[in-house]
Amino acid sequence: MSATVLTRRVEATGLLTGMEWTPAEVRDLLRFTAKLKAHPSRYRTALDGRFVALIFEKPSLRTRVTLEIGAESLGAKTIFLDNTQARLGEREPVKDIAKNLARWVHAIAVRTFAQETVEELARHAEIPVVNALSDRFHPCQALADFFTLEERFGGLGGLRLAYVGDGNNVCHSLLIAAAQTGAALRVATPAGYEPDGEIVRAARRTARQTGASIELFPTPEEAARGAQAIYTDVWASMGQEGEAGKRAKIFAPFQVNRRLFAAAAPDAVFLHCLPAHRGLEVTEEVIDSPRSIIYEQAENRLHIAKAVLATLLG
Ligand code: CP
Ligand code: NVA
Questions:
Q1: What's the pTM value of the predicted model, to 2 decimals?
Q2: Which pLDDT band, with edges at 50, 70 and 90, does 303 fall under?
Q3: What are phi and psi of 287, to 5 degrees?
């Protein structure tokens, strides 16, 4: 039922890093997302009789709600496994969790610490696994972000997006999605907080096929100059709370504020995956301004969640 013909690689694994999907598959997914958003009633029974398990080891508002509502609005049922107190693999091996769940449900979404846990689940489950955020990647977020940018600007080829802040999971997934969609991503981080070199290289390899460009800068001003969109995320991600004080000092020059925003294009928009800390990575003035499209991004998490599930399970 989905618009996407998936490679066997994707069918067998799901959405683990985002890199399993070819640029063509990502384009199809974004097109399918637009259809789902425009005509939700057409897909109400698309996943009738399917079950999706959600395992979350960290808190979540957007990802949990959009996966649950997304699955159920396609006719599937979800089961939420609240692992916020215990790490996967503590009560029983990840392999056994995967092999048990695969006997009962049709897909697993997992929010965890180590990317390796996501991949280990997928290796043993033989059903699609969706990465609902790990220490390395947040693919559902980046896909929703590029869908949002495409809605706003009408196309992604050459679109100038500046990412300012920590070279974290969200940054990594933006690198991958930018490369897949042909966008021009300009990343500025403090020294020592750059995105992982291996992911940057992988994104640049894909960029060579799609016409995307990936550039890294040491100052936020260089990345923001002429950008059509400026994106930031928290300075200390979940699991790094102990470093928050130290990071607040290091990242202070990377705050997205009126001055930095003034360097961007006149019609530039502001993005943030949320949750946000007003007064740290972004000022209240910028995040609550008419240029901010944070709630469009959040809404589109739902449409992307539906498209990913329908594509993998349809
Ligand atoms: N942006 C995002 O993933 O939000 P949650 O952590 O609330 O799911
Ligand atoms: N980088 C953040 C994203 C939250 C959606 C984190 O991992 O906590």
A1: 0.96
A2: very high
A3: -70, -30
